[in-house]
Amino acid sequence: MPERRPFDVLSIGLNNTVIVGMKGGYEFRGVMVAYDIHMNIALEKAEQLINGEVKRGVGTILLRGDAVTYISPA
Amino acid sequence: MPERRPFDVLSIGLNNTVIVGMKGGYEFRGVMVAYDIHMNIALEKAEQLINGEVKRGVGTILLRGDAVTYISPA
Amino acid sequence: MPERRPFDVLSIGLNNTVIVGMKGGYEFRGVMVAYDIHMNIALEKAEQLINGEVKRGVGTILLRGDAVTYISPA
Amino acid sequence: MPERRPFDVLSIGLNNTVIVGMKGGYEFRGVMVAYDIHMNIALEKAEQLINGEVKRGVGTILLRGDAVTYISPA
Amino acid sequence: MPERRPFDVLSIGLNNTVIVGMKGGYEFRGVMVAYDIHMNIALEKAEQLINGEVKRGVGTILLRGDAVTYISPA
Amino acid sequence: MPERRPFDVLSIGLNNTVIVGMKGGYEFRGVMVAYDIHMNIALEKAEQLINGEVKRGVGTILLRGDAVTYISPA
Amino acid sequence: MPERRPFDVLSIGLNNTVIVGMKGGYEFRGVMVAYDIHMNIALEKAEQLINGEVKRGVGTILLRGDAVTYISPA
């Protein structure tokens, strides 16, 4: 096993803007204020993106871990 | 692990209007009166939304956790 | 955790007419005579709905919990 | 929990003709000669139905529980 | 629970020709030489069927249980 | 249970060319150099096939077990 | 069981450029800096590929294991 762990990406992203990919192909972008070991993620000041374009603002949102496919610091 | 937990979004949303995204792409909006650790969610005064438009009223409804993708206080 | 539990919707719906949403997008409407913790549900006098229209009567039917997405008292 | 259990539908259907809905939208109709707690189901004198029309006879068949969506005595 | 078990269909089919339905809608037909409790299945002299027509011969093949939807002695 | 086990197909295929079917309908063909009980599979000199035609060479590749649908010695 | 294990591909790929296939059909290419037993993978200097063409750069990204289908050293 490598010294670095995949979840380090989450601790780096905490309180910063991240993009979260969802099953179904769309994304949410917002400030990640919480996560857990299931990859459940809470965002604030979030907006939903379709094909990289902002579709709508959603404010605070809880994303269910098993619907998440990737998380990337913006 | 961060101090805040993703499920805090649920405790904030309790007894308030929330929007719940479902696998399949549609949403329900209603007053969240109950939830559990599986993200099973009970709404009252709920309506089903397709592409953000109200499709129909459904009153009280139980949403199965593994069909839920996100929850956002309205 | 809130005082009310999502499964309260099921106990309220027992022996009453409910609408059950299924993965795949169709629904069944009937009198719910039994359910369990997996959300397996037994209906009587049931009919299958597609886009809210009655497609056919099915009488007694067992719905497998992991194919269920929502349950709403009619 | 209610007194009646969803699996009662299976014990009623045993040795009788049932219709079984499958993920993917098609159905099998036949005499249910065995089932288990995973909803694995064995039919005899079975035929596959598409949109309610008989597509072909299949004789004896084992249906895998996690591909089953509903079971209804015919 | 009934006296007969669904897996009896597998013991009957052993060393005989069976048709195996797969998620995605296609089938394999061949001589079933092994199976296990996960419904992993090994076929010999197998061929892949699409809409009931032989698409190609594949010889020996291991089918992963969770991709299997049904098994029927041919 | 039969004497032969489905995983025997994997031990036969080891260090030989196999075709691996993947959820989504495409395949990989290559020399299987490792596998485990989850059906995670490592191939060398692999190429991706779409509709039986070589799409591209990929060299060494790890295939995740739960995305695998079948394995057949070529 | 063979002497070599599928996860050896991951230890070989560590700190090197890999291509990761995702459910939904797209890929990410980047330097793999971490992985774990769930096949959660962290990439740096990553870009998303669609049909083998670069769609966009994404920098650092965490890929959820159960959305991963394959990993190949580039």
Q: Would you write up a description of this structure?
A:
The structure is a homoheptamer of 74-residue chains. By secondary structure, chain A is mostly beta strands. Chain A has one helix and five strands. Chain A has a five-stranded antiparallel β-sheet. In chain A, a hairpin with a 4-residue loop joins strand 1 (17-22) and strand 2 (27-35). The longest helix of chain A is centred in the N-terminal third of the chain and has 6 residues, at 8-13. The model of chain A has no long low-confidence stretch (mean pLDDT 95). The A-B interface holds A 11, 14, 22-24, 28, 33-37, 40-42, 46, 56, 58-64, 66-67 and B 1-2, 4-10, 12, 19, 23, 25, 39, 52, 65-66, 68-73. Strand 4 of chain C pairs antiparallel with strand 5 of chain D, so a sheet runs across the interface.
